[in-house]
Hints:
2 copies of one chain form a homodimer. By secondary structure, chain A is α/β, with parallel strands linked by helices. Chain A is built from 10 helices and 11 strands. The first copy, chain A, has 2 domains: 29-114, 3-Layer(aba) Sandwich (Rossmann fold), CATH 3.40.50.10860; 141-264, NAD(P)-binding Rossmann-like Domain (Rossmann fold), CATH 3.40.50.720. A 6-stranded parallel β-sheet of chain A has the order 1-11-8-7-5-6, sandwiched between helices. A 3-stranded parallel β-sheet of chain A has the order 3-2-4, sandwiched between helices. A two-stranded antiparallel ribbon of chain A has the order 9-10. In chain A, strand 5, helix 7 (172-181) and strand 6 form a beta-alpha-beta unit. In chain A, helix 1 packs parallel to helix 10.
Amino acid sequence: MAKIIDGKALAKKTNDDTKQMVNELHSLGIKPCLAVILVGDDQASARYVRNKHKKAEQLGIESIVNHLPKETTQAELLKVVNEYNDDDAINGILVQSPLPKHIDEQLITRTIKPEKDVDGFHPVNVGNLFLNEPKNYPVACTPKGVMAMFAEYNIDLTGKKAVVIGRSSIVGRPMAALLINANATVTVLNHYSQDAKSYIKEADVVVAATGKLHMVSGADLKVGATVIDVGQNLNEAGKLVGDVDYESAEKVAGYITPVPGGVGPMTIAILMRQTVELASWSAKND
Amino acid sequence: MAKIIDGKALAKKTNDDTKQMVNELHSLGIKPCLAVILVGDDQASARYVRNKHKKAEQLGIESIVNHLPKETTQAELLKVVNEYNDDDAINGILVQSPLPKHIDEQLITRTIKPEKDVDGFHPVNVGNLFLNEPKNYPVACTPKGVMAMFAEYNIDLTGKKAVVIGRSSIVGRPMAALLINANATVTVLNHYSQDAKSYIKEADVVVAATGKLHMVSGADLKVGATVIDVGQNLNEAGKLVGDVDYESAEKVAGYITPVPGGVGPMTIAILMRQTVELASWSAKND
């Protein structure tokens, strides 16, 4: 039976640390502040934004939520982003995805100042990550949270075989970069991959990020592998499940993240932490 | 016996195309211009710069070579880079590596305007590449040249197993990104990798970029594999050789690049092509 990587517990620990960092910054007169922009009436997006706002308040992070109507034009949204870019009181800017179709999401991502890019999606930050630059920059929160899990559970990566299933901009690619930087041997699988299962079978670490149910089952895994499930899918019964067939996988894996209670809680904890890091880095550069 | 990927012939073909592109741009009143900055007296660097200058002139590309003394300060070099950034007549800026130790090379790389970054080394361009952005941006010339080889020889990459040996910023990492974007299954090996040989043995495409002699020999390869040798080493006899033991590898590989006459000539051809592309993209954005 695999050891469970408890994302909820690690998120709590991370949040406790973050709260302490916030207190220390407050004592220096620095008030970390996150601005979240929500455009339109998507229910799931509204819920995510509420959760972020609540969590920020719990941790003592100033939180601005700007809820704009779905008719907001691209020019209007750019104007808000640029105001926040210029506002020294704001350390992190997040524009909740997805945006209405009439707005170019990539343009918005690129307009956020790299040093306020709390999501780590700006190309210059992605470039820094992929080049393993030895400086401070934000990194996509989900894969950064996965790295925190490896650290917490002392999971060694150097020289180890890691397989990333999926190559999205927000999970697969930055995850691969982080693992390369951590000296793992990294293979990135995509839906064209031949012999995908043979890579998974040999892997010491499997990160599943495809958004497809039951992509990986216990029979696919090497005994003792670390299995990180980034998937968030609803199964036939309407229950939240990952990309991994947990029941069979936990019998073979050495470590495994559950869904829910694994990667999910860590993503928001890292978002909060990164807001505070941005505030701290910005203060150092003043 | 492997089919030889003739880098010299493809470089010639590429240069012929480039020359035609230059003529077309000239007829529109656009004169592509490359500015190369050389600091100090490194003999090899001076030779590279001379070769670039000569090639640019052959192709009708305006070429500025600014040879600065080795005592040049970082501030003085930054000033020159910024002058070139602001000079609309200059399309590509290249600062020859290595720089004297008192100059922060990464700072210089970041100071070059991304749209004049003919080497493709600026983090924002690397980020664009790693995110597979559907827009025009420069890419590191050596891996871009390798992709041109795959295209020329109709080497299919989709779903294929590609192994990149080495993870440097200028070859291994951008090569991996290009292969991921081309739908290959990409594994990046480093010197910590366990079972490195088992990955190489399974690979349809092997790109060796480690700077170590005889890293890969014929016995390591899958029959019919495509072998790209980015290495440029001097062997015991002082002869230029790659990272691959060519004699044994060509008996097993399906395609192979020789050293010299493989990747090397393509790198400079792509540098020239990219200068012209930058001029063309910049004209479109005016």
